Amino acid sequence: MTRSKLIAASDRLDAFAKDSGFDAQPPRYITGNFNIALHDGEILYSDEAHLYCADCATSLQRRAITLLGPQSEDDHFIYCADTSLGEDGPVYCATCGVTLDYQLTEHGCTTELEHYEENPSADISPQELRDRTHP
Ligand SMILES: [Zn+2]
User: Fold this and answer.
1) Per-residue model confidence as pLDDT tens digits over 75-134
2) CA of 130 to the centre of ligand 1 (A)
3) How far is the CA of 81 from the centre of ligand 1 (A)?
4) What is the pLDDT of residues 39-79, one digit of tens each?
């Protein structure tokens, strides 16, 4: 599949997802990193490579600042991640697993289309997918 056909297919799949009511929120990250041992043996960990939905980022940031002290507020802000470089696969919140907004690389787009063709969704038939991506 040529790059222009991949982009057209991706745009049509995005439109299909939005028309179906799916509207992914942008991925967020927490600046800096923390690695806090909790009393129950768990570790509260985050670094800038971890991506979260808004609720999970806020909850984790608040919890870390509570444990680290108010002076840590200057080290741990929440920012939206730059998605322009693309991802080789879907992006999910590191805490709750909700799908976040992302752009696929050419490799990621090809891989996702191949995966779909091998594992069709119950919500859209392979014929519908072909009709939507190859008008
Ligand atoms: Zn989440």
Assistant:
1) 999 999 998 888 888 899 999 999 899 888 888 888 887 887 787 766 665 556 556 555
2) 32
3) 14
4) 999 999 999 999 999 999 999 999 999 999 999 999 999 99
CA angle 37, 40, 43 (to 5 degrees): 30
Q: Say whether both 113 and 128 belong to one domain.
A: yes
Give the single-character DSSP code of 66. Answer: H
Q: Does residue 93 lie in a domain region?
A: no
Whole-model pTM: value is 0.75
Asked if residue 18 belongs to a domain, the reply is yes
Pair 38, 73 in one domain: yes
Q: Cα of 4 to ligand 1 centre, how many Å? A: 33
**Amino acid letter, residue 18:** K
Ligand 1 center to 98 CA (angstroms): 6
Q: Same domain, yes or no, for 29 and 75?
A: yes
Residue entry with tokens 């091998």 = 118
Instruction: Say if residue 42 is in the same domain as residue 8.
Output: no
- Tally of structural domains, the chain: 2
